[in-house]
Amino acid sequence: MAQNHKEQVLARLKSIEGHVRGVARMVEELNFSFHRTINSVVEAPRLKWFLRATTRHVPRGYYTTVPGWPQATLQDHGAIIDALAAHDGVTAGRLMEAHVVRGGNLAAEQRRGVGQDR
Length: 118
Known about the structure:
By secondary structure, the chain is an all-alpha fold. It has one domain. It is built from four helices and no strands. Helix 3 (69-85) runs antiparallel to helix 4 (89-113). The longest helix has 40 residues, at 2-41. The model has no long low-confidence stretch (mean pLDDT 85).
């Protein structure tokens, strides 16, 4: 009976882990959609060029591995939406720029931590 219980526990843990991975993929896709939606409506040709040139070199799922990324997403996106809802393009632009810079800094810190940028 004890072996059967262990197998049930392992099966449950594997199921939970599968759901966690699915949620992580969903968060990544929603984050991508958030940024793509904003980028599709702004008049910023250099930004669009930069994003086309750089995002193709970032593997899908990468950002969910960066420590601090989920917190930055939750903290920053709401403020950006609030600024857009208030029709305050200056503040929205400033917040979006700060968000992108923060994300880049988090990614750079993570890469240095695993010896990628030495």
